[in-house]
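We emphasize that the prediction below concerns an isolated chain of 244 residues; any contacts that depend on oligomerization or on bound cofactors are therefore not represented. The input was used exactly as deposited, without trimming of termini.
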Amino acid sequence: MTAANSRVNFTFCGQTKCGPLLKLTLALLASTVLTGCQLYRSVRLYEQHWAQPQGDAGGLRYVALGDSAAQGIGASVPERGYVGLLAERLREASGKPVQVINISRSGARIEDVVKHQLPRLSQLQPDIVTVAVGGNDIGEWDAASFAVNAEALCAGLPVGKTVVADVPSFMHGRWRARSLEAARILTDACRPRGLRVAQLHSTLESQGTRGMFTLYAADWFHPNDRGYQVWADAFWSELQSLLR
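Result of the prediction step, given as a token string:
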């Protein structure tokens, strides 16, 4: 089949006429690749941003633990991740300066938070702590190991200062069942110790199928700006009670 007797030429779209469907497909592919590259580069940029305390001292010290979601990967700028959004809400609600110390790391699993982030808390003397972790544990899921680390994590967090998000929902395949199990394990480990648990899993589930197309970045894993607003809302319903 040649360009002369075909409506669509799949070879040189820059020189010959492409069908509308092919043009749209190529445009979407190019956009996805570009956005994926931007997400990859943002990991280092956002890590550099949070390497130093953000905000002003002399008021509330907010320490964030977790994985790439706590770093804000997928948001247009680091401050539009849920940590930055919560810091702004804390400033408005308390009327005090808020200093953010974000010790999260992209790629962290719950074991990494227990081993490398949790031990730093006592030295940082936080007024507010948030934790969101577990998404990276779902791929190679080990319920028993997750439960052991969940107990260790919750045992080491300061009561009356901490909100722990249960695990975000993954709305497809076996990952959905795993994320639900992880959310239940983490909730069961934290609540008996008096820790507040943000219902992130059910909040994301309530967004339905439409949320899969409106709340996520190009990798369909990290939230986008709109998605992080939902995360912040889930945290805030519990976090604001710590200010009373």
